[in-house]
Model the fold of this input.
Amino acid sequence: MSDIAIVGAGISGLHLALRLQQAGVTTTVYAERSTEELAAGRPLSLPVRFGKTRDRERELGVSHWEGGDDDTLGVRLVARGEPGIEFLGRLDAPASGVDLRLYLPTLTADYLERGGRVVVLRPDAAEIDRISRDHDLVVVATGRAATTGLFPRDPERSPYTAPQRALTAGLFHGIAPVDPGHIHFQVSEAGEIFSTRILTADGPVHGMVIEGLPGGALEQLASYDHLEDPAGFEKTLLSLVAEYAPDLRERISDREFGIRRPGDVIQGGLTPVVRRSWAALDSGRIALALGDAWIVNDPLAGQGANLGSRSAFEIAELIVAGGPFDEAFAERVAERLWRIAEPVVAWSNLNVAPPVEHVGGIFVTATADQRVADAFVANFNHPADMWEAVKSPDATRAWLDKITEAG
Done:
């Protein structure tokens, strides 16, 4: 029976570990932090898990957050200007936002209760080579720089060499919920602001993500010292939300608004990148890249965790089919996973590029036609279909014709 090392205990790594566990494959998860450290630490990211990812959670027996007020049922997109854009589209299956500091420890506990093994270790490339000697295959599912050096950037699949947005994300009290629950997404000349309900260990709050265009007014938040001056940070944030997302500002209570707890803000920037998907180690073993070790997308499309989960299931299926886990196996994995990832990467990169007229046309049409609004939003759960709808003006015209003729 195969013995697999999984380096990284995020969504990708844990979904892979749990899936292999179901198939009777021996695994060891190398986690960078204990679950206690993770739960007490700062937020990692604010992922929304769409319907297909939640289906995989049900298959894994880890669907701990089902139903109720915490489900996300749609996406509202608003853009001021001429013509004005505003629509609320319905997802074809409820999505969910759960703080990773609750989600990951819960899934780790599931894995351990079923006989899994977790080692707390922050390995670099040399340590991964050492680990590999005790296993038949290593899957690296962490995006830390100390490990991603194993997987060089793929320039043909990585058009950007710098962050395309200045990112600020946080968890906040004092934002009124909406009915039906949905992601509020506001587009402006300064960048994008979106907000959604996130379940934490203390109950539901709202996550807000600000994606500031370089040189724009929203960029300043990414460098504001929120720990040194939380009141000033909150005041500046509210002022910018009032200007660039006034609909969201109307839902915010001046008296109750605030960062959930000190440090519950993420700041910085992500350079979208696709790395080489595998490496041959000095030990003679193969290391596969998964999740952020392989692909980093800007959060605008909300696909990072969802692609990671899908990729984990695909890798698990190939591992269960059997080795040898050699370079030919690694190439089979790479080919199969890229067919899944390519449309996600293309759509995500389009989102951070300068606006294109044909995508704007979808938004204008969706404002007037609920069928188009629903079809567009449903594609967040079907990223390959989304890319087919937006990849070119001709593709968009064909997609719109299909939606409107079917209705």
Summary: Residues 357-406 form one domain. The CA atoms of residues 133 and 349 lie 37 Å apart.
